[in-house]
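Hey, weird one. I pasted the Protocadherin alpha-8 sequence into the form twice and got a warning about non-standard characters only the second time. First submission, copied straight from the form history:
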Amino acid sequence: MEQRRYKPRRARGYLVGCVVAVLLWSVASAQLRYSVSEEVNEGTVVGNIAKDLGLDKSTLKDRKYRIVSSTADPLFHVNHNDGILYVSRKIDREDVCAQSSTCLINLKTVLENPLEVHYVRVEVLDINDNSPSFPEKETTLEISENVLPGARFQLKASRDRDSGHFSVQQYKLSQTDHFRLEVKDKGDDGKIPILVVQKSLDRETTGSHSLVLTALDGGKPPKSGDMNILIHVLDINDNTPVFSQDVYSVTLKENAQIGTTVVQVNATDLDEGSNGEVVYSFSKSINQNILKLFDINPLTGEITVKGLIDYEVKDKYEIEIEASDKAFAPLTTEKSVIIKIVDVNDNAPEIEVTSFSSSIPEDSRPGTTVALISVNDLDSGLNGKVICSIGDDIHFALSPSLQDKMYSLVTKSLLDREEKSQYDLTITAKDTGQPSLSSEKTISVVVSDANDNSPEFSLSPYTFYVTEGNDPGASVFSVKAFDCDENDNALISYHILRDGREGNKLAPFLNINSENGDISALKSFDFETLKTFQFQVVATDSGTPSQSSNVTVNVFILDQNDNAPVILYPVSSNGSAEGVEEIPRNVNAGHLVTKVRAYDADIGYNGWLLFSLQEVTDHSLFALDRYTGQIRTLRSFTETDEAEHKLVILVKDNGNVSLSATATVIVKVVEPKEAFAASDVKSSAKDDDGNDVTFYLMITLGSVSVLFLISIIVLIAMQCSKSTDYTSKYLQETNYDGTLCHSIQYRSGDKRYMLVGPRMSIGSTIVPGSHANTLVLPNRRTSGEVSKHLHLLYMQISALCCFELFVSKITCLFLRHILTQA
């Protein structure tokens, strides 16, 4: 076919272009079909593709005419010059298409410029180049002599690699009177030969038959393949095996090693060959457990031990043995073998706790039963006789029961859980076998608690120090008690003893947590009102009946700076700290203008007052004494000085957080005549009041001094006449309801402490963190009775000193009241 080219032109119509395109598509889609026989030589012409497709041979090479193939070694190729399709190599149809009835090979040829694809189909024609063959050259059949005529035996089919008519078409069997051949056609699977028994067989006449099976294909001439068939006629099994003994009975020790021979049985068969060969086995109805214990040799009839033989599990075994021949239809004979097991001492005694109280009260009486124990030994005779005992424990014993091999575990003495709460008892059981075996069992006996211990406080008595001004309802301290018992017997609850006694007068203002012993105060303590107190706490356990104990709690209140200074003078008529002082203008330097008087209810540094000028009209005129509060002139007044001066005095204490108060003094400078007149009036009034105050003060102080001296003399005389050893852990004086002085002494460990007021002892040391009112007294100790007497004397003298200070304080308060009224 000539190549056609299409070049668009404007003059051609659309219809002509469509027609040409259809023609080109039909040519490009053309398909050819050729056929060639297999096994032809290389270069054999298959067909002229260029001619059949009408291609121009001169353009094939330029247009790269070729066959597109995915294999490296194609079966066909096309010549570029003439367009003829040639065979590239020998073609084996059976390799290319296997057993397909039609073998077609699809080829795709391509031309370029323009691109054209043409499909070519080549059919490979089969030739009869293969002979039929059987899977094996010889086969053997075993047929019993009692088989009936008509019995069929399928033989293996022959295979031919050729297909269609050249495949296997028929079978032939060599001449014989006893067999004939049938062929079964299975379509695509081929033809199957079947050997059929035509006449009864007689082993005694002919023991075997030799036949030849031939397979023929459909070629002309046909090709064939042979297979030899050897038929053995089997003997009829008409004799059963017979055992050599009527009864087999043996003994076997338990725990015999695996592989030990128990017995060997023997049976014979009068038949020949396999019909006369005997094999041994256990009966099919035998218990599966026996198969785990014993094994039998199928050839020798030897019975051996396979598993663990235990007399205690079973003392006798009866095993059914079968003797069978090896015939196609074997005959069988059965025989019983009796095996008696002999006991050995291989079981240790077993200890069983049949009834056990894991816990026993510690207050149980001797002879209380804790557990019932039974012992057992699976062995028999002496091997099963058991003796039971317990270790050397002084609290428990084994008591034999009326029932054999039963014992009672009982207590021998009183128990104490706090001494030992658990006993691990080892019970030993031993048999009388040879050699003897034994076993042990440990049981734990827990001693349960009885409420036989009272709660005990960790300290007795308790001493606590509480800073005044505590928050009401907040916890201030706690007590702790413990109980040696356990559980509810050790569950402690706390309460405060409220019996109305004088020592417990503050108990209503205290609350205690019944579970943890935390004590909270329902009111705020004031050191200036209350210095110390004590109460009692009772701890009670939850046992039945409950037990309790109590402890004394001593509480010391520590002072803190909670009182601001109070101005005593000057005080105006309306109560404010203001005053007016008039002085002559002609006074000299150092003249006492007035004295500011103040009071602080706290003690120690908290009550130590310092004075300072916060505001002054002229700093060059007046000076204020830091400690006494005296206001004096620094120089003489001049004509240019103001006639009135305002002084604001700041009074503050020495607490960590100091508190303060202010007083205002108005100083009026007057002429000497006016000053003298005013001074006379004031002096007369002050002299009268001062004389009365001085009189009462002298009487009071004199009385106190005399009483103090008499008390010291009496104390010294009493101590000299006494030799009693007296010591006290807490040295405590009478509490005073005042603030000018205060003294409490107490001891903690190796140190003695004193709570003091403004007057502090020389040589005392201030302890940090004590709010500046706790002193550590030097520890002066001597040996012997002299030291004890001196110590007691010191305490008593200190008490008297405090009493004197108390009286002095009352006097000072009385004096302050008078001055205030003035």
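That's the output from the first submission. The warning seems to come from a hidden character in my clipboard, not from the data itself. Helices lie at 14-28, 49-53, 93-97, 288-293, 672-721, 784-821.
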